[in-house]
Design a protein that fits this description.
three-stranded mixed sheet; about 40% helix; Rossmann fold; about 350 residues; 12 strands; globular; alpha/beta; 12 helices
Length: about 350
């Protein structure tokens, strides 16, 4: 049975990846989920699988080298999928230090622990071991040319403390691949959306606010462009890179769903109106009048767009979910999990963990 160590598995993308892997492989694999349970980590995301015999949760900080080394010593880890990261740009502008600590130092700790566990006396590594570092398209900076795209060869040009910290972690992984021939891959993805996404992010924020008749904040002129990727498509891409990707390579995972932020908001509002049943009082709350333009974010990149040509050609992955379909699936999920949203926005889920872990 192959054992996967997933860092940040209680977060948005990590929890979706764990669900995807169990749907695909069932009892053929074992997953150890390591998460610090910060504001973005929520074990409710994994409630349906927590009792599986081949699933283990360990509360730990990836910057705690002793704790991470112990996990490797006590378990025969075959694959590492490294999601754990601080990822909210606005928070990085207010407090860059925690981003550097988690994203850079935490990645270094993970690399060292895996290297120590997997390295043979002759400096080579045990066959079949692999480390996958999950990163972002934001490391490439901003595209000014509307016909340009991010490729794996695009020079890094990060503009926020968040993207700079992720660029630094990417460079660390690359240095281990180049120096030690450490068995790893890097993936850089576009903006994800879907179930379990923390409501500070654009799409769940707009859904939640619109249903409550609250203002819908839009940075600047609302014309910043992002490439949107349904989270299950991303999970599938990560698995395919682990299974079919060439060692030491970087693969961009993009959704072919470029849209301006203001377009996203209009699509969500229109879709909510379509999906809310007649007689639901929230139909009257959902309105374009809620759209409120606010001062632009500092260093706000204008456009991101990934060309996933390499992963399509080499591995056969492609984004299966059109945005219009994905947003309906996402809204349907939020309709069915209103209690989850209430617990997250109120902070009640964190109080539960504080009691559970006596913090």
């Amino acid at each position: 049975m192959r054992t996967y160590l997933v860092t940040g598995g209680a977060g948005f993308i990590g929890s979706n990846y764990i669900h995807y892997m169990f749907r695909k492989y069932g009892d053929e694999i074992r997953i150890i989920n390591v998460d610090k349970l910060t504001y973005a980590g929520n074990l409710e995301n994994l409630k349906s699988i927590e009792s599986r015999g081949n699933y283990t949760f360990i509360k730990a900080d990836i910057c705690d080298s002793a704790a991470i080394r112990r996990i490797f010593q006590e378990n025969d880890i075959d694959r590492v999928v490294h999601f754990a990261a601080e990822s909210h740009v606005d928070r990085s502008i207010k407090d860059p230090e925690v981003f550097v600590r988690t994203n850079v130092l935490g990645t270094l700790v993970m690399l060292n622990a895996a290297k120590e566990a997997w390295e043979l006396p002759d400096g080579t590594f045990q066959e079949g071991k692999k480390f996958l570092h999950v990163s972002t398209d934001e490391v490439y900076g901003s595209l000014e040319d509307e016909n340009a795209y991010f490729y794996e060869t695009t020079p890094y040009d990060p503009h926020s403390p968040y993207s700079a910290s992720k660029a630094s972690s990417d460079m660390l992984v690359k240095s281990y691949m180049d120096t030690y021939r450490f068995p790893a891959n890097i993936t850089n993805c576009s903006n994800n959306y879907g179930p379990y996404q923390f409501p500070e992010k654009l799409i769940p924020l707009i859904i939640n606010n619109a249903l409550q008749g609250k203002k819908l904040p839009v940075y600047g002129d609302g014309k910043n462009v992002r490439d949107w990727l349904y989270v299950e498509d991303h999970a599938k891409g990560i698995d395919m890179v682990q299974e079919k990707g060439r060692l030491f390579e970087t693969y961009n995972i993009g959704g072919h769903n470029e849209k301006q932020n203001i377009q996203i908001i209009h699509i969500i509002l229109d879709t909510l109106q379509e999906m809310l049943p007649e007689g639901d009082p929230r139909r009257e709350l959902v309105s374009e009048n809620l759209i409120t333009y606010v001062e632009d974010r500092k260093g706000h990149d204008r456009r991101y767009a990934i060309a996933p040509d390499k992963i399509k050609k080499e591995i056969g992955w492609y984004p299966e979910t059109r945005f219009e379909e994905g947003i309906r699936l996402t809204i349907k999920w939020f309709f069915e999990h209103e209690e989850w949203m209430k617990n997250v926005t109120s902070g009640d889920y964190q109080k539960y963990y504080e009691e559970m872990y006596h913090e």
